[in-house]
Model the fold of this input.
Amino acid sequence: MNLEEYGIEIKQVDQIDDGILAHWEATADNIDLFGIAAVNEDLPEYQWSVCVNAAEFICDEPLESKFRYRIAEAIRAVKGVNKLEEADREVWIVDGTLNGRELLEAIVKVLVELKPEIVTYLNAH
Done:
């Protein structure tokens, strides 16, 4: 997938806190659609928290269930994921040792695939 075609850049961000082991972000021309942050934290209960901007806005069926299912499946498919839990509307927590770039790439792929439905939904709300 050519991320530049969608104005998306995935990059590792400098840590500003000693408790953060890694911080990855997907930035884009359309941040509401493609914005994602993944933080690898030194916590006993989970290693990663992932925030997907679009999840905050998608709150009507049937798109909400489809969206959440696809995001969860994409995260579970990343090598090293042991456990996944939805912590908030736009936040998933992930247990496991994994690669932050691969995590964001998996989620971006879902967002690109669902882009027509998400854009239609966002424009209507």
In short: The first strand starts at residue 8 and ends at 13.
